[in-house]
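Possible regression after last week's pipeline update?

I re-ran a chain I had predicted before the update to compare outputs. Posting the input and the new output here so someone can diff against the archived version. Not blocking, just want to make sure nothing changed silently.
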Amino acid sequence: MTYCVGMALDRGLVFMSDTRTNAGVDNISTFRKMTVWEVPGTLCLTLLSSGNLATTQAVISLLEERGKARDARSPDILAAPSMFQAARIVAATLRDVVAAHETGGMEADSAFKATLILGGQIAGGPPRLFLIYPEGNFIETTEDTPFLQIGETKYGKPILVRAYDRALGFADAMRLLLVSFDSTVKANLSVAPPFDYHFYETGSLCAGRQGRILADDPYYIHISEAWGAALKNALASLPDFGTGEG
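New output (post-update):
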């Protein structure tokens, strides 16, 4: 399984993804699920992927090959005039790859599905963030829905709903996302570190700070332990339920 988040802030966009893939409890691997493209001064795009690994890798490979070929007959994500058009190119590519797998004589069509998050900025437009479905349709973040999740979303969503604020800085967003990811890891064995992240600064039109948080990272360990202790203390501070005992 997977857990990925794309978040829109006043300052820019923040992305985080785990790296665990599995085909059963005895076949666990680590794969990067975040891809960043940039043409400095023109665009910066980040793609997060969830679902069938062969499907997502095929989509990324096709997008990169078209960018290198510079063939006018093939849609090139690096030449997209807007984020909306970039989302359309990614959506069409995903739909075509899924359709090719489903009509290629393979069974279990649903196994070839994938879901993507695409975010970034192209010169002349604002930063935008899209959730792209395997059918080729997509939605965009709004003021009411300022962050997007794919994969194993339910365990890490409560803290995002309660603590998200558009005014967060990148450091605070990292803290929030690590709590969200740690909550997911604690509840689901199919999500695990390392976690990849990318901070995109509005107007920079180039890749921002990127990195990987390992399972033994001191800051991650501190966040995990401190959050667990804070939850226990908060629970203990709540008023007792009146049972008539004592």
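Follow-up from reviewer: compared with the archived run. The chain has one domain: 3-235. Marking as no regression found.
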